[in-house]
Structure formats: C-alpha cells, structure tokens
Amino acid sequence: QHAARETLEVIGKLVRNSEVSRLSADVVQAVADPANQKYTQEALAKLGGTTFMNYMDAASLALLVPIMTRGLKEREQKSRKWSAQILGAIVTLVKDIEYLRPYLPTLLPLLKECAIDPTYQIQREAAKAFG
C-alpha cells in the first residue's frame, strides 16, 4: 500500500492540469485508501464542484479514472452522479483521444449502467458524458 501511494504521489506531481493538480492530494488519499469511503466521497465532491477549463493530460487521467471508476460502481447515488458528471466534464477536455482510449473498456460499461439508472440525475449526467 505504501508503494502504491508513492506511485500515485509521483503521478500527482506529473499532472499538468491546474484544476486536477490542486486536488491531487485528495484524490491520492482516496485512491490509496479504497476501504475508506469517506475519502472517496470527499474527493468526488471536490472534483464535482470544480469547473474544469484546462486540457486533460495523461497523468490527470491516470489519477482521476480510478476514483471515477470506483464512484460509478458505488451503490450510493451521489458518488455515481458525481463520477458521471466529472467524466462528462473531462472527456471534452482530453488533449489527445489516445490518452482516453485505455480507459474506455472499463468506463463505458459503467457509464451505460448509469444511463439506465432509476435516478434521473444519474441518467442525466451519464447522458451528458456520452455527449
């Protein structure tokens, strides 16, 4: 677990997106301690309240995708809604589509599940993420 945290911290230092860089410590804490749902929800809430305006680089995606993947799998509605919302916000800002390609096999099925979720807000955010 210590080595994983160090790796995540290194990735966090490589992030060029200023919005993600500002929140990287929160994201690293949430990803490094997956058993603590509180960290995940706090990080997703902060990311969900962020207006992303700068291009997403590969390091930003490497840091964000694990927490969004976990959020999309949660039973708790807020986590799914925030994750779909964040994903929708960042996919339009990916600098090179090749950065996103490795994550699509994981993210697309989860996003499809959210698109048919009984909760309207989750459906709406998933639909926005699909474009």
* Sheet with most strands: none
Order of helices and strands: HHHHHHHH
According to DSSP, the number of beta strands is: 0
Number of helices: 8
Task: Assess the beta-strand content as a share of residues.
Answer: under 5%
Q: What class would the helix/strand composition place it in?
A: mainly alpha
Q: In terms of topology, how is this protein built?
A:
Layout lengths: L1 H13 L3 H15 L4 H12 L9 H16 L3 H15 L5 H4 L3 H12 L4 H11 L1
Helix pairs in contact: 1-2, 1-4, 2-3, 2-4, 3-4, 3-5, 4-5, 4-7, 5-8, 7-8
Question: Could you walk me through the main structural features you see in this protein, from its secondary elements to its overall organization?
Answer:
The chain has 131 residues and is mostly helical. 75% of the residues lie in helices and 0% in strands. It contains eight helices and no strands. The protein has helices at 2-14, 18-32, 37-48, 58-73, 77-91, 97-100, 104-115, 120-130. Helix 4 packs across helix 7 (104-115). The longest helix is centred in the middle third of the chain and has 16 residues, at 58-73.
Could you write a compact summary of the structure shown?
This protein is mostly helical.
What are the defining features of this structure?
131 residues, mainly alpha, 0% strand, globular
